[in-house]
């Protein structure tokens, strides 16, 4: 609840606005060809979703590390892995549901039809928790480092490539197995991110 309050107290609308802005710019960039838009639209939405998850990365872990909140939680008996899991859930709740709502007008802006819209929502519902997990893990790894925001971007984009590939493929073709592969990658990231975050928090104390 603390993570959700912090996320909503800040610029919670920024990822949503950025997502819609990218969706609105794509038709102007590629032209009015409806078939071309439908072919690249799912990929554009996934890139926008990745960037939206990355925008608040600097405030996910570093403020609590700098203020000593993480040390107080450790003294109270809260494990670093539990802190990482709570931050993942809180981060997703502050951008994931809003992103799913924004995906409806965003899909129409890039020319996706009704079935493609349904696949887009399913794909984003499966993939955005993994994006949140990646953002928190990378935030933990870069906490306390100079230019952490730029470094986080360099780290998270390569790690998110498989998720983006299969997520966009699942949006474009409902008959493929891309959705199952996306779900498998998402589960792997969700399972591993709390341990990576916990190890990073412990390492930042030394």
Structure description:
The protein contains 9 helices and no strands. The protein is mainly α. It has helices at 2-9, 13-30, 34-54, 62-67, 69-75, 80-109, 114-142, 148-172, 178-204. The mean pLDDT is 82. It is elongated, with a radius of gyration of 17 Å. It has one domain (2-204). The chain is 83% helix and 0% strand. The two termini are 29 Å apart. Belongs to the CcmB/CycW/HelB family. This is Heme exporter protein B. Required for the export of heme to the periplasm for the biogenesis of c-type cytochromes.
Mean pLDDT, all residues: 82
Shape: elongated
Give the low-pLDDT segments.
none
Largest sheet: none
Helix content class: over 70%
What number of domains? Answer: 1
% residues in beta strands: under 5%
How do the helices and strands follow one another from N- to C-terminus? HHHHHHHHH
What is the number of helical segments per DSSP (H or I, 4+ residues)?
Answer: 9
Distance between the termini: 29 Å
The gyration radius over C-alpha positions equals: 17 Å
Structural class: mainly alpha
Query: What is the number of strand segments?
Result: 0
Pfam families: CcmB
Protein name: Heme exporter protein B
InterPro entries: Cyt_c_biogenesis_CcmB, Cyt_c_CcmB_bac
Subcellular location: Cell inner membrane
